[in-house]
Amino acid sequence: MRSLALLALAAAAGCSRPATRQNLRVWSMWGGDEEEVFRKTLNAYDPQLENLPSVSDDKTIRALVAGAPPDVFTLKDPSALGALAANNALLPLDSLFAAAGLKDDDFTPGSLSQCRFRGKLYAMPYLLDCMVLLYNKRLVQTPPRTLEELEELCKRLTQRDSTGRLTRIGLRPPEALHLLGAAGGQFWDERTERVTADHPRNAAGLAWYKRLMDAQGGNEAVEAFSAGFADDMGSNNPFFKGLAAMEFSGQWNANWVYRYTPGEEIGVAPLPFPASAPELEGTAWLGGNLFCLPREGKKTAQVWEFLKWTQTRTGQLQFASTMHGVPNQRAILKEPQLRTGAPWRPLFARFLDLADSPRASHFPVLPVAALYQSELTAACDAVRYGRKSPQDALKTVQAKVARDLEKYR
């Protein structure tokens, strides 16, 4: 049963240094320049650690099923964590965490909750992603605080040429999860252990998204304009080129904007919130790099020494200063070397501050998280294309996800 469940997931997935060096096998998601950065981080701990780069979650899951996993591995898609934990594929880390003297309060808000399933710790974070509002200061003097302000601003910022074609939009169409996160989306009821896809806040978020598309010329026009956008990873990023005045994105942009644009023209602000929910002010949406141990691993003690090192000042600064991720240790957020020096560092510091907000949130860790997120994206598309109302689209999500969740009861 466990092997079948993990194979189904695979199909869906698309400190001090140890006294004796160990030839640990690490499988990581990073490739290219990022793999070089991670390799240097491993070398700072122990050059003998063996890293296999660019490993997909599919490959890792199949290795778990075959009983031949690495000693430690990353998850490219954190939504896989719940299903792996539910199928007893991962080693709970609670006793190791406690014995190491680590404390929840030392961690950035949201970093450990991304690693817990049903109250148990199944992963360790090693840097976070912090998604907030980026805006072009030439076009936006004061960033919008609420979604309603954002909608009105987008209406004014959207431009067309003499033929009526869009030449600029106010906000690049956000991903469904970032949109719903800004709207204060509710996805799971901890008390009843039930999905809440049809929560009124989710419906309000999708309704706002439809209004946003209309404010920028209608979904068809925005879709046609967005189809010409180049890859985010470089100088042709549409936000950098002024094709969108704002976007929801993460901290890696702090370095890029100074490489590809006059960086002082870019501002960072919390995600806007519904005017009816002022308690959501200061919202950021989090992702993260998760490291997991196979339940039947043979080198648990040695791997844990490495993971414990990743939580030290040395380990956090080594990776954060080169990978440009947000430290998950709160004390490191204030480190001067992450905030000053290079021209882009002060902008990066804004992400560090926003990641420490009590309103920073993330998607719940569930065994059906991958399906749930996919269905929410489909619901968002159905609403923006006018095929369904927000309520009807979310009813479909609720039914599908709740039905799939029953397999894990």
User: Largest sheet, if any?
Assistant: 10 strands, mixed
Question: Given the C-alpha coordinates, what overall shape results?
Answer: globular
Tell me how many strands there are.
14
* SSE string: HEHEHEHHEEEHEEHEEHHEHEEHHHHEHH
Number of helices: 16
Let me know the average pLDDT: 94
CATH architecture of the largest domain: 3-Layer(aba) Sandwich
Percent range of helical residues: 40-55%
Multimerization status: single chain
Q: Strand share of the residues?
A: 5-15%
Distance between the termini: 14 Å
The name CATH uses for the topology of the largest domain is: D-Maltodextrin-Binding Protein, domain 2
CATH class of the largest domain: Alpha Beta
Low-confidence stretches: 13-20
Tell me the name of the CATH homologous superfamily of the largest domain: Periplasmic binding protein-like II
Keywords:
single chain; 409 residues; alpha/beta; D-Maltodextrin-Binding Protein, domain 2; 2 domains; 10-stranded mixed β-sheet; two-stranded antiparallel ribbon; 16 helices; globular; maltose binding; SBP; sugar transport; transport; signal
Written account of the structure:
By secondary structure, the chain is of the alpha/beta class. The protein contains 16 helices and 14 strands. It has helices at residues 2-12, 32-45, 57-66, 81-86, 94-99, 147-157, 176-182, 200-215, 219-226, 253-260, 300-310, 313-323, 336-339, 345-355, 369-384, 390-405; strands at 25-27, 50-52, 72-75, 116-117, 120-121, 124-136, 159-160, 166-171, 188-189, 194-195, 244-249, 266-269, 284-292, 360-361. The strands form 3 sheets. Strands 1, 2, 3, 6, 7, 8, 11, 12, 13 and 14 form a 10-stranded mixed β-sheet that branches. α1 (2-12) packs antiparallel against α3. InterPro entries: SBP.
